[in-house]
């Protein structure tokens, strides 16, 4: 029995080391986000290992892209305080997807409309689980979040004069979304900036389908070009801002 227990303990240790190694490789190959980075009028707020984008609207209101990992929303609330605003100033939270590190602070902003692609609503609300190699190991529980507006691919939501165009980019999760507003393309976890500044796809260990994610990024680039979109910067949730659209176009060209 003692020998069996030792073997089990060794197997668990090896598994833990392997997971730590995979996570270290995943994140060390990416250039992390910069807290307080101003880009195109929006501000990047780092919340642990994730980030939130705060987009100013008229009349002292703001919209958020994602809500971070922290259930207390402390980093977001500090940013609002810096702007001399309170939680009630957040009128909309656009969720790129339903992983826990992107929905943590939603409850801190009860006046906000919560928006996401319809395909992502069950994951956000905790009625289904993600299918990535690591996320599928986690239990499925209600999150207490209600998506108040389910979005369609290609839809445009206008808030206080700012237009948010919705793009479906499935792959990281089934209903992953990108949002284009004021020339900024917010991609959540669907793309990252590598340490050398190039654009790379979502990390496979957290993604439902890396192949679908890659295809979605190619399709996104094609649609942006067809729409004549003026993308001044790409803003991932876990890495640095990427200036312009050249890196997305290079990724798409290499993937075709």
Q: What is the element layout, followed by pairings?
A:
Blueprint: H1 2-28, E1 38-39, E2 42-47, E3 50-56, E4 62-65, H2 74-82, E5 90-94, H3 100-103, E6 113-117, H4 121-125, E7 149-151, E8 156-159, E9 162-168, E10 177-181, E11 184-188, E12 191-193, E13 199-201, H5 210-227, E14 233-236, E15 242-243, H6 246-255
Parallel strand pairs: 4-5, 5-6, 6-7, 11-14
Antiparallel strand pairs: 1-2, 2-3, 3-4, 8-9, 9-10, 10-11, 12-13, 14-15
Helix pairs in contact: 5-6
Could you characterize the architecture of this molecule?
With 256 residues, the chain is of the alpha/beta class. It has a single domain (34-255), classed as Ribonuclease Z/Hydroxyacylglutathione hydrolase-like (Metallo-beta-lactamase, Chain A, 4-Layer Sandwich). It is 29% helix and 25% strand. The chain has helices at 2-28, 74-82, 100-103, 121-125, 210-227, 246-255, and strands spanning 38-39, 42-47, 50-56, 62-65, 90-94, 113-117, 149-151, 156-159, 162-168, 177-181, 184-188, 191-193, 199-201, 233-236, 242-243. The strands form three sheets. A seven-stranded mixed sheet has the order 1-2-3-4-5-6-7, with helices on one face. Strand 6 (113-117), helix 4 (121-125) and strand 7 (149-151) form a beta-alpha-beta unit. The radius of gyration is 19 Å and the shape is globular. The chain starts with a helix and ends with a helix. Residues 9-25 have low confidence and may be disordered.
